[in-house]
Design goal:
This protein is of the alpha/beta class. Helices cover 47% and strands 12% of the residues. The protein has helices at 22-35, 43-49, 54-62, 68-86, 95-104, 117-126, 148-157, 175-184, 198-202, 212-223; strands at 9-12, 109-116, 136-139, 168-172, 187-191, 208-209. The protein is globular.
């Protein structure tokens, strides 16, 4: 028998969490930097400086906020290069198995991403994991703000036990995931395989782990 209604409802992040795409992100970021004459960035430097909203990340690199023209150019070039590479990115180690096992055990999980919804849904489907989520939400506007208000809407759209905030644990690779969880009164676990260094993640004051298997175990502990 499954364990429906028990345990954590996990709200998964996509980029850098379930999808192991950090190297595609670095390549696309450097392509966008080249467009306006910025030097390329290493993975380590990226993880030290990355933050949301993205223009603030660029400010850390440039010493100033990019102009509207620079931002539009960099954003467009980034997405052109990123989506050309995203198709070749695989899931993080253990992701497909963990998702399937949780669903088979009657646990609920959903997906909330800042990736454009029209790109997110097809790529999740191509990886054959869409059926494991009770809801999938990507970005449907042009805002590059963080996830906090999107998390409010995401949880409001969930039904039944999955919507009980005391059971909700957000698993992501960015401090913004922890901020969004706190905004709705949920818990968070942060994973080191994506956009942030461990030191950056630890500044959020939530559990930090090095594998998705650890993340799921920690989520269940938090929701117990």
């Amino acid at each position: 028998m499954g364990k429906t209604g028990r345990g954590a409802h996990i709200v998964w992040d996509w980029n850098g969490t379930l999808l192991h795409d950090i190297h595609a992100v670095i390549e696309a970021t450097n392509a966008s930097f080249a467009e306006i004459g910025l030097e390329s960035i290493t993975l380590e430097r990226y993880r030290e400086l990355y933050c949301v909203p993205i223009p603030r990340f660029y400010e850390r690199l440039m010493g100033r906020l990019p102009s509207d023209t620079e931002w539009r150019l960099m954003d467009a070039v980034f997405h052109k290069h990123y989506w050309a590479r995203a198709e070749a990115c695989g899931l993080a180690e253990g992701a497909a198995r963990l998702l399937a096992e949780r669903r088979a055990d009657g646990r609920t999980q959903s997906l909330l991403s800042l990736a454009p919804h029209e790109h997110l849904v097809p790529i999740v489907r191509r990886h054959g994991i869409h059926e494991h989520f009770v809801r999938i939400d990507g970005r449907t506007d042009d805002s590059h703000a963080g996830k906090a208000e999107r998390m409010v809407r995401h949880l409001a759209a969930l039904e039944g036990a999955a919507a009980a905030v005391e059971r909700v644990v957000v698993i992501g690779d960015a401090v913004d995931d922890a901020v969004a969880a706190a905004h709705v009164g949920a818990r968070a676990v942060l994973y080191t395989g994506g956009s942030h260094s461990r030191a950056s993640l630890e500044s959020a004051g939530v559990p930090v782990v090095d594998s998705l298997e650890e993340a799921v175990a920690e989520a269940e502990r938090l929701a117990a």
